[in-house]
Amino acid sequence: MSVLKDLVRLGYSRSWVVDKYATVGLWPSEDWACTTFWPAGSRILDLGCGAGRTTIPLAQKAYQITGADLALPMVHKAYQQAKTWHVNATWAVVDGTDLPFSEGSFAGVLFSYNGIELVPRTEGKSRVLSEAWRVLKPGGHLIFTTHALEAFNQYLPIRLRRLVRFLYLRARRKPMPEMEVGEVIHDSRKNFEVYYMQIISPRTYRKLLAQTGFELVYYNSRQRLESGKSPSWYTDFDADFKFYVAQKPALQ
């Protein structure tokens, strides 16, 4: 998986990509989730912080925030932006599958803007969830978002074509770079932003959360959440991003 991590790091180290992510501000759905499930002033890890889009406004809300990302140029840009916005934050370059923080360090962990989909393979995503569990205090909440393989949106035909191609090549035992359903791997010689990502079903994330020991306390789509609509059986198929809020059980 190290080669795939290097691809992700490469894409998000390009200067034009760093500048693209220099906008600062929480989505209304992120604002609601963070302020609803995290105590005011608590210590928070913003994993996959990019150029500080979510880290800086969370610092403005007086959270004790640590912004962490795989790509050094992103963290450097976030540090510069934090100085411009006159906020205090701690910054770190980390691999989400092996966090350098002590057990029970944070009251909350955020992995925003579908960042977990850039973590290679289902095994890697499971490791991220395990690391989030480890660094969370008992009773703490992990908040993250994803796409969905089965979402009814304009990209569904593309995902279906890729799925059919993947299943065909695997059945014929043909060589291909993708090893799992939902993976997209691009040629690193091209000037892309995303060289690797994997879009899987929310059902898989729910299974991984349960296996890790998390309790899924809230699940909805961004569109429904920001429209004031309650969670629905249809959420997996909703066109927009999925919001997960998972709690590490409190000590009894």
Rough outline: globular
- Give the biggest sheet: 7 strands, mixed
The CATH architecture can be given as 3-Layer(aba) Sandwich
Secondary structure tally, helices: 9
Low-confidence parts? none
List the quaternary state of the chains.
single chain
**CATH topology label:** Rossmann fold
Helix content: 25-40%
What is this entry, summarized?
The protein has a single domain, classed as 3-Layer(aba) Sandwich (Rossmann fold), CATH 3.40.50.
How would you sum up this structure, described in words?
The protein is an alpha/beta fold and 252 residues long. It has a single domain (2-151, 199-247), classed as Vaccinia Virus protein VP39 (Rossmann fold), CATH 3.40.50. The chain contains 9 helices and 9 strands. The chain has helices spanning 2-11, 15-20, 28-37, 55-60, 72-85, 121-135, 156-171, 202-212, 222-226, and strands at residues 43-47, 64-69, 90-93, 106-111, 136-146, 183-185, 196-198, 215-221, 242-247. The strands form 2 sheets. It has a 7-stranded mixed beta sheet, sandwiched between helices. A two-stranded antiparallel ribbon has the order 6-7. Strand 1, helix 4 and strand 2 (64-69) form a beta-alpha-beta unit. The termini are far apart.
Describe how the helices and strands are arranged.
Elements: H1 2-11, H2 15-20, H3 28-37, E1 43-47, H4 55-60, E2 64-69, H5 72-85, E3 90-93, E4 106-111, H6 121-135, E5 136-146, H7 156-171, E6 183-185, E7 196-198, H8 202-212, E8 215-221, H9 222-226, E9 242-247
Parallel strand pairs: 1-2, 1-4, 2-3, 4-5
Antiparallel strand pairs: 5-9, 6-7, 8-9
